[in-house]
């Protein structure tokens, strides 16, 4: 996959994650597997960790620590008000882009 496709995929993955932040398990490797299933792509685990850090740093999710049977506490993400606004903007942009691209594919009709 080329650099441009990778960047586009990162943006798309962020939308996928924000659309359903509860379903993926809280560990990065498990989130990676879940997102791979959703996108049918080979996604590097480092990509997912960077995605999660970015989402958290931008204040789109609230993070709580939950006890774990093994190892350190699990970090559980939940979408907050700012994250919901960001997700709504993602879907507006997604709809705009897909409508325009479909028109272009159909020859501009």
Summary?
The chain has 109 residues and is mainly alpha-helical. Helix content is 61%, strand content 11%. The longest helix is centred in the last third of the chain and has 25 residues, at 81-105.
Polypeptide structure, described:
With 109 residues, the chain is mainly α. It has four helices and two strands; from the N terminus they run H-H-H-E-E-H. The chain has a two-stranded antiparallel sheet with strand order 1-2. Strand 1 and strand 2 form a beta hairpin. The radius of gyration is 16 Å and the shape is globular.
Features:
mainly alpha; two-stranded antiparallel ribbon; Arc Repressor Mutant, subunit A; about 110 residues
User: If you average the pLDDT, what whole number results?
Assistant: 79
Order of helices and strands: HHHEEH
At the fourth level of CATH, the homologous superfamily is Winged helix-like DNA-binding domain superfamily/Winged helix DNA-binding domain
The number of domains = 1
Structural class designation = mainly alpha
* Largest β sheet strand count, sense and barrel closure: 2 strands, antiparallel
Straight-line N-to-C gap: 31 Å
Strand order of the largest sheet: 1-2
- CATH topology tier name: Arc Repressor Mutant, subunit A
User: Got a strand count?
Assistant: 2
**CATH top level?**
Mainly Alpha
Provide the fold topology.
Blueprint: H1 3-19, H2 28-39, H3 45-57, E1 61-66, E2 74-79, H4 81-105
Antiparallel strand pairs: 1-2
Helix pairs in contact: 2-3
